[in-house]
Amino acid sequence: MADSGEYLAELLAKEKSGQLRPSDRLSIPCQPMPEQDPFDRRENIGEVALGYTETEARLEALRCLQCRNAPCVEGCPVGIQIRDFIKEIVDGDYAKALAIIKQNSLLPAVCGRVCPQEVQCQEKCTVAKKFKDVSKAVSIGRLERFVADLDRNGGIPEVAAETGKRVAVIGSGPGGIVVATDLRRRGHDVTIFEAFHKPGGVMVYGIPEFRLPKAIVQKEIDVLAKMGVKIELNFVVGRTQTIEQLMKEDGFDAVYIGVGAGLPSFMNIEGENLIGVYSANEYLTRANLMKAYMFGKGADTPIAVSEKVAVLGGGNVAMDAARTAVRLGAKKVYLVYRRSEKEMPARVEEVHHAKEEGVDFRVLQNPSRIIGDENDRVKALELLKYELGEPDDSGRRRPVPIKGSEFQLEVDTVIVAIGNKANPLIGQTTPELKLNKWGNIVVDEKCKTSMEGVYAGGDIVLGAATVILAMGQGRTAAAAIDEYLATRK
Known about the structure:
Blueprint: H1 4-16, H2 22-26, H3 38-41, H4 54-62, H5 82-91, H6 94-102, H7 108-114, H8 121-124, H9 126-131, H10 140-149, E1 166-170, H11 174-185, E2 189-193, H12 202-205, H13 214-227, E3 230-232, H14 243-248, E4 254-257, E5 263-264, E6 277-279, H15 280-288, E7 308-312, H16 316-327, E8 332-337, H17 348-356, E9 360-363, E10 365-372, E11 378-391, E12 397-401, E13 407-410, E14 413-416, E15 420-421, H18 425-429, E16 454-456, H19 459-462, H20 467-486
Helix pairs in contact: 1-4, 4-5, 4-10, 5-6, 5-10, 7-10, 11-13, 11-20, 15-16, 16-17
C-alpha cells in the first residue's frame, strides 16, 4: 500500500498504548515477499525472493496474536521462541530478535529461506487456524530471514576452556555445522571431514543459488573457522580413512556422522543408461557446487546443453532441477509427476515460482521408458497417463495407470528427481554400525549408534529430511556427545 509507513506508525501507536486488539491484528493484510520479475529471473541465478523491507517486516510481525501458549513453537523442530522474537521485531529491536532465534537455531538465514514453515511452525499458527488457511499464517520464516540478514558480521560464539577431548564430525551440512558449533562452544577440539572440495553439504551442492546464496553458507563456515573448528576437505570417510581409524589411530574420542543421503534413486526403466539422463544430484551438483552455470565465464564444468528437458518427480529437488534447467537455457522444461499437483511434496512457494518461470507441469503422468536415437542419446520419453485411486501407506491417493494411454514426449535431457537413499560406503566399511533395511543408521533417542562413541543424525538416519530436522538432531547429538565425553578420562 502507498501509505504503508503511515499505516505502520498508526498501528505501532495503538500497540504501544495497549489499544491494538486481536481483531485489529487480524485485519492487517499478509505482507507478500518482494521478488524478482519472473521473466527477468529466468536469465540469472540471483535470489528470487528479495526479503522484507523494515516496514513490511514490522507490519507482518504485528499480525502475530502473541498467543500465551505459542502453539507455533510446537511445530518448530528446534523450539525457537517464535512469539518472543516476533515481539522484538514489532519493537524494532532486531539484534534482540536474532539473539532469541540463535538460542535455538544457528542458521536462521538458511532456515528462513529453505525450511518448509508451512508444514511446521506456520501450520500451527493461530492466525492460520482462524482463517482456516495456512497461507494466511504469520510469515515466521520470512521474519526469521529478515533479522538474520541484518546480521552482517555474524557474531562469534564464546568458546569454553579446552577440555582435551577430540571430536570428528563427518559431513559439513546443517547437522554437522550445528554439532561442530555446539561442541566447540563447550571447549572440545572439533574437526569436520568433508568429501567435497567445499564445505556446506546439501546447502552448497543441492540448493540452487537462486534459493540460497552460497555467500550465506560461507559466512557460517567462516564463523566455525574463527571458533577454531578445523575443516578437512576432499576427505571421504570410508575411503580416505574409516571411522575405526579415526578413533583408534587418530585419537578422536567421539564421532558424529552427518553425511546425508546422497545416493540417487532411479526408476529402473528402459533407457536410463542413455546419454542425456542425469540424476538430480549430479545435475544440481554440477550447476551449484561446480558452477556449470558460468560455463565459458570462469568455470569449465560440463553439463547438458539442453533444448527440451523432462524432470521426473514432484519434490523440492525436482523443482530446483527444473528451475535450474530454465536458467541454463532450455527452451522447454517439463515437470512430470505421477500424482496430482495437490499431492506434490514440494513447497507451494517452489511450485508457484516454477510455474511463473515457465515450467510445464505434466501431472498424472509417469514415464514407462526413455527412447534413444542411433547414437544412444535421449530423443523422447514414453509416458503413461494415470488416475488417482485409494490412499496408499503415505496417506496420498495411489496413482493407477490408465491402460493404453501411452504417448511420447520429445526431449533431449531427462533428470531423475524421485528421491535419494543412504550411500552404503560407511556401512560397508564400518560393520559394527547397525543399519535398517533401507541402509539408514539406527540410533536411539540421543542419536547414539550401535558403536561406542559414535553418533549420527540427519538424512543418513531419517532418510530424506529438511535442514531444520537435521539441525534438530545435530543439537540432540551434540548434547549427548558432550555428556559422553564428560564420562571419559
